[in-house]
Amino acid sequence: MTSKEAILAAIKNNKPEATPLPDFLTFPEEENLVDRYEKGLTGNGGKLQVVNSMEELDAFVKEHYSNDLLIASLVEEVKGNVDVSKISDPHDLEHVELAVLKGEFGVSENGAIWMPEKNVVHRVLPFIAQHLIIVIREETLLTDMHRAYEKVNVADDGYGVFIAGPSKTADIEQSLVIGAHGPRSLTVFLIRK
């Protein structure tokens, strides 16, 4: 018997009994999820706009972004000038100034938003645009990531990502840079019930 075989045999003979997995942790539902969500989002460098209708989002885009900028909108109430569905090469999105997307749900614990592939069309879109607006509905806010993971089914879309603020990085000198590897800003429009 080789030393490798002896080691593997010793491991097999001294294998501990299997123990059951622990129960999932549960935490109580939080009160005032909107305030908690705003705290998490702003802590990540994002901004929250609480609105009553999609018309307020459209007005915001018209006020803050001129028509000569490339705007990719996957929200039907906001007219963009880039048809993402007709783009086959994601590199063609490199000059998009603003992407307007729908999120599935938000997580109040940390300000994150679940974005399945069907909501972004091209995986690169939320990361290549200079500015990002994501729309979620108030009733989709969840207390914490435990509840979020219960809702996520990656097999449905094959890809999804949690987005929690604009891109940021800090180098060894502790210099914070916003927008180094992705959008320079994230504004979340929370549509009231």
Summarize the model shown:
InterPro entries: FTHF_cligase-like_sf, LUD_dom, NagB/RpiA_transferase-like. The chain has 193 residues and is α/β, with parallel strands linked by helices.
List the helices and strands and how they pair.
Blueprint: H1 3-13, H2 33-43, E1 47-51, H3 54-64, E2 71-73, E3 98-102, E4 105-107, E5 112-116, H4 125-128, E6 131-137, H5 145-151, H6 154-157, E7 160-163, E8 168-170, E9 176-178, E10 185-191
Parallel strand pairs: 1-10, 2-3, 3-6, 6-10
Antiparallel strand pairs: 4-5, 5-7, 8-9
Strand fraction equals: 15-25%
Q: What's the CATH architecture name? A: 3-Layer(aba) Sandwich
Number of strands: 10
Give the % helix. 10-25%
User: pLDDT average, as an integer?
Assistant: 91
Strand order of the largest sheet: 1-10-6-3-2
CATH superfamily: NagB/RpiA/CoA transferase-like
| CATH class group | Alpha Beta
| Multimerization status | single chain
- List the helices and strands in order: HHEHEEEEHEHHEEEE
Largest sheet: 5 strands, parallel
Give the N-to-C terminal Cα separation: 70 Å
SS summary, helix count: 6
The shape, in one word, is globular
Radius of gyration: 22 Å
Low-confidence stretches: none
Number of domains: 1
At CATH level 3, the topology is Rossmann fold
User: What structural category arises from helix and sheet content?
Assistant: alpha/beta
Domain LUD: 93-191
Pfam family, one: LUD_dom
Protein name: Lactate utilization protein B/C
What keywords describe this structure?
Lactate utilization protein B/C; LUD_dom; alpha/beta; three-stranded antiparallel beta sheet; FTHF_cligase-like_sf; Rossmann fold; 193 residues; five-stranded parallel beta sheet; NagB/RpiA_transferase-like; single chain
